[in-house]
Design goal:
Elements (H helix, E strand, L loop, with lengths): L1 H60 L1 E16 L10 H21 L3 E6 L2 E6 L8 H24 L6 E16 L5 E5 L1 H12 L4 E5 H7 L3 E11 L3 E11 L14 H26 L9 H17 L4 H13 L11 H12 L7 H12 L10 H10 L8 H14 L6 H14 L5 H19 L6
Parallel strand pairs: 4-6
Antiparallel strand pairs: 1-3, 1-4, 2-3, 4-5, 6-8, 7-8
Length: 464
């Protein structure tokens, strides 16, 4: 009995020894696993810290700007609900990619910024990142071309059959835009204008372009629109909506109001001029030398105003007025580079800037020839050159001639181009006596006063 109990005890001890060894092995494994987990945890900790730092850097790179006038477009382009038996869903997805690719090209053509695509909804906006007053027209023009493209796209593939259901909603208003990214900049816009555009798109019909009354008021001189109805908007009330049929007949090159003609481009250019003028005047404010007391921003604005006044009086058409105003805007901009050949420098600036605003090489050449005609002594070869030459020297026959001419004297004196006021007055008498205005309008308005100026200056000249 004792022998049996001893054997049982020995077996139990042996089992405990084995279990102890197994536990030791497990402990070793757990310790290894613990070490591995600690290493992994440390890696994740470093990764999280790096991501947080990266997030800080990204946050630092992001900027939020306010834009007072942005035109937002939402385009819904559903096609899967119209699938029929035998159509390949994968092929339809490929078509959607092709369509969105072309949409990108079209809105880029009109300087409209793509914001994002959400499923089959396409969102873009005009007036960001560069602020301008032309964005309502540009966005609606892009919408008209998007619709025309999609009609042609489906007609080429299916004839009369249609599967794509395009609905567009457009609204103009203020937004806040978050700008992020370095190599590839992206924009995210928020605000009531975004929500309103989305709501308008939601009630739009198939193949329809709906715009809010805010957008309508800014584009009605370019597009044929019909009243559509009212949309209740929270915190705003009812917003009137209009359906865009196409370009006005006189502004369209085709029969369906989809392609702009030259009259459209000129009319658009007259509005766009304000944006270009803001850029140039800002450049002059920042870059003109301090000694330019006469050839300053005010002089440029005066000449721009005067060419338009004389131009209309001389019977110029819209395109000629546009050429005159653009030449007047650039005619002294070359002073930011050089004084003596500023006319030529102004043409270089016009040649570098105007292609970005859609001006043709022929238009740019015409503008440059008008600019060069202002080089003294003026020798204009046609009516437009005569108009700008008269506008540039308009002050000779104005009542404020003496104070204006004194600023020119101070400017020349600062460059050692004239020594004293007496010599300057003699030079003026000689110049004005030999000067003549070229247009009938300028002669009627300024010639009489110009003769009085000569007598006033002569009275200021001393014998010594």
């Amino acid at each position: 009995m004792e022998s049996a109990s001893r054997d049982q005890l020995l077996r139990r001890i042996a089992r405990l020894v084995r279990q102890n060894k197994e536990l030791e092995e497990q402990v070793k494994k757990l310790e290894k696993e613990k070490d591995r987990l600690l290493e992994t945890t440390e890696k994740y900790r470093l990764l999280v810290e790096n991501n947080e730092l990266r997030g800080v850097r990204v946050a630092e790179e992001e900027r939020t700007l306010k834009f007072n006038m942005v035109t937002v477009l939402f385009a819904d382009i559903q096609g899967f609900t119209n699938l029929t038996e035998g159509m390949d869903p994968g092929g339809v997805m490929d078509e959607l990619d092709e369509i969105f690719f072309e949409f990108d090209r079209i809105i880029g053509k009109y300087h409209v910024e793509k914001i994002r695509t959400i499923g089959d909804t396409y969102m873009c906006a005009g007036g960001i990142p560069s602020k301008n007053i032309t964005n309502p027209v540009e966005v609606v023009m892009a919408a008209v071309e998007l619709r025309r493209f999609l009609r042609q796209y489906e007609a080429a593939r299916r004839g009369e059959e249609r599967i794509w259901n395009l609905k567009i909603g457009i609204h103009t208003g203020p937004v806040s835009a978050t700008i992020s990214g370095k190599n590839k900049v992206s924009y995210d816009i928020k605000g009531r204008a975004v929500n309103t555009a989305s709501r308008i798109q939601g009630v739009s019909d198939r193949d329809s372009i709906l715009v809010s009354v805010m957008t309508y008021e800014l584009v009605k001189e370019f597009f044929s629109c019909v009243y559509y109805g009212k949309l209740p908007v929270k915190y705003t009330g009812n917003i009137q909506m209009y359906q865009v049929e196409g370009l006005l007949p006189g502004l369209s090159a085709d029969g369906n109001g989809s392609v702009p003609n030259e009259a459209f481009r000129v009319k658009f250019g007259l509005i766009q001029f304000t944006d270009i003028q803001e850029v140039i005047l800002d450049k002059l404010e920042k870059e003109l030398p301090d000694y330019l007391f006469y050839h300053n921003v005010k002089h440029t604005v005066d000449v721009v105003t005067e060419v338009e006044l004389i131009g209309w009086a001389e019977g110029c058409n819209d395109e000629q007025i546009l050429m005159l105003k653009m030449a007047a805007l650039f005619h002294d901009a070359g002073h930011t580079v050089s004084y003596d050949d500023h006319e030529y420098q102004g043409t270089l600036l016009a040649r570098s800037m105007l292609p970005d605003y859609g001006y043709s090489s022929e238009q740019i050449e015409r503008i440059c020839s008008i600019i060069m005609s202002t080089k003294l002594p003026p020798k204009p070869s046609d009516l437009l050159e005569q108009i700008i030459c008269d506008s540039d020297l308009d002050y000779l026959g104005r009542s404020d001639f003496i104070p204006v001419s004194n600023t020119l004297y101070e400017e020349l004196k600062a460059q050692d181009k004239i020594t004293n006021l007496n010599d300057w007055n003699r030079l003026q008498v000689k110049f004005i006596s030999g000067h003549q205005y070229f247009t009938g309008t300028a002669r009627r308005l300024r010639e009489v006063n110009k003769k009085l100026q000569i007598e006033r200056i002569r009275s200021l000249i001393t014998d010594n």
